[in-house]
Specification:
single chain; about 450 residues; alpha/beta; Aspartate Aminotransferase, domain 1; Aspartate Aminotransferase, domain 2; 4-stranded mixed sheet; 14 helices; about 40% helix; binds pyridoxal-5'-phosphate
């Protein structure tokens, strides 16, 4: 059974059948839509997929955080099929349909925002962030938003503007949307040398207060938008004390706090949503976005907020033709049911614990493993030239990713400097598969770093 198997490479990569498709891709698809994996998928199950040439890979990227529930979960397949037989599409702006309404109700129960909530659906993470900002502006009647260094919020004009990294995400694609200001994110591994974590929290909070003196007045700011763990930025985890400080600043100035949970949501961090950690600390967000793993791979995304905030836009001011597609909504309801029933948030914590034990050993063993970090099973290893300089080791990261792929393990880089390896394995992965993946990774480290 593919879902329980281990990686097995039986051809040179890419194999001949994969190569034929990859060659066609080069002429059919623009190079700007990137991909580096040396294989073409034939079918996937759990954390594994088989390529056209019969090679078996383990996927620790999961379609970039989309496959928390694994490939082709049979119950989700059934739910989607059953919905397809009833109707693929009708717009929620034209005819009411129960799947949209039920899913909204479910998210209103689960999203860790205080008080009565409402939810709308769109199609992608970027659209969710765009709508969250539109709604925040409409509600607050303020024009500006604050985002962070290292942030990633999407590729549309507004969300590309909100995204930090210039190359490759923004270069040559301006001018950008107005009203977006960027403050420094608390990157604890790279905080000023000698500073304690507690002092660093205050240091970064002071930066946020000072920022209001030079960039925009807090009375102009509709929302501060934050990822609970920065995704593309390198899986950087802000201390909860920092979040509490941001919440206080938001309260002080009447600014809305938006948690962008596009990558952190749906059990990845050991909770259904990472901002549950915020809420437990008394720092719940006002608005939350989600996407990616919500429907196991079918396109749908969400914005949830306090009801009064969500009700700020008038009829027709939010929405869109495909938003909240019935097949995606039916799949999402099943995904959430399975996640709760099978306790995938707890499993994320177990996976995280198991991996972090090995990662911490590697931090001792290799001079070039600078930092290992994780929340639940949203984990990364940051490679540096040496521990003292912390100079980013991007080339080595690329070599390791190529090497693990050769041995059947798909991994991906992240970070503004591209020097972190991120892990987003499906949460249905078995212990045996985790061990096999860690062994492949260690072999690649032995070959390519000191
Ligand atoms: C935190 C975050 N926000 C927004 C997005 C954009 O999502 P999408 O690619 O679905 O537009 C991403 C995608 O990686 C993300 O990680």
């Amino acid at each position: 059974m593919l879902g329980k198997s281990l990686p097995k490479i039986i051809t040179a990569l890419p194999g001949p059948k994969s190569k034929e498709v990859i060659d066609k891709r080069k002429t059919a698809i623009p190079g700007g839509v990137g991909c580096s994996a040396p294989c073409v998928i034939k079918r996937g199950e759990g954390a594994m997929f088989e390529d056209l040439d019969g090679n078996i890979f383990m996927d620790w990227v999961g379609g970039i955080g989309v496959l928390n529930i694994g490939y082709s979960h049979p119950e989700v397949v059934e739910a989607a099929k059953a919905q397809c037989e009833k109707y693929f599409h009708t717009s929620i702006n034209v005819v009411h349909y129960p799947e949209y309404i039920e899913l909204a109700g479910k998210l209103n129960e689960l999203v860790p925002i205080e008080g009565p909530k409402k939810t709308m659906f769109i199609n992608s993470g970027a659209e969710a962030v765009e709508n969250a900002v539109k709604i925040a502006r409409k509600y607050s009647k303020r024009p500006d938003i604050v985002v962070f260094t290292g942030a990633f919020h999407g590729r549309t004009l507004l969300t590309m503007t909100m995204t930090a990294k210039v190359k490759p995400y923004k270069f040559g694609m301006g001018p950008f949307a107005p009203g977006v200001h960027r403050c420094e994110f608390p990157y604890m591994y790279r905080r000023p040398a000698g500073m304690s974590e507690a002092d660093a929290v205050q240091f970064y909070l002071n930066k946020l207060e000072d920022f209001f003196l030079e960039y925009t007045a807090p009375e102009n700011v509709a929302a501060i938008v934050m990822e609970p763990v920065q995704g593309e930025g390198g899986f950087i985890i802000p201390p909860i004390e920092y979040i509490k400080g941001v919440r206080e600043i938001c309260n002080k100035y009447g600014i809305l706090l938006i948690a962008d949970e596009v990558q952190t949501g749906y059990c990845r961090t050991g909770k259904m949503f990472a901002s549950e950690y915020w809420k437990e600390a008394g720092a719940a967000p006002d608005i939350m976005t989600s996407a990616k793993s919500i429907a196991g791979g079918l396109p749908i995304s969400s914005v949830t907020a306090k009801a009064e905030i969500m009700d700020a836009p008038g009829v027709g001011e939010i929405g869109g033709t495909y938003c909240g597609n019935p097949v995606s909504a039916a799949a999402a309801l099943k995904v959430i049911e399975i996640m709760q029933r099978d306790k995938l948030a707890d499993r994320a914590n177990e996976i995280g614990k198991k991996c972090m034990e090995r990662f911490n050993q590697w931090k001792e063993k290799y001079e070039m493993v600078g930092d290992v970090r994780g929340l639940g099973s949203m984990m990364a290893i940051e490679l540096v030239k040496d521990k003292a300089s912390k100079a980013p080791a991007k080339e080595e990261v690329n070599k390791i990713i190529a090497e693990t792929a050769k041995n059947g393990l798909i991994t991906m880089s992240s970070g503004v400097k591209g020097n972190s390896i991120r892990f987003l394995m499906p949460l249905v992965i078995t212990d045996e598969q985790i061990d096999a993946g860690l062994d492949i990774l260690q072999k690649a480290f032995d070959q390519h770093i000191k």
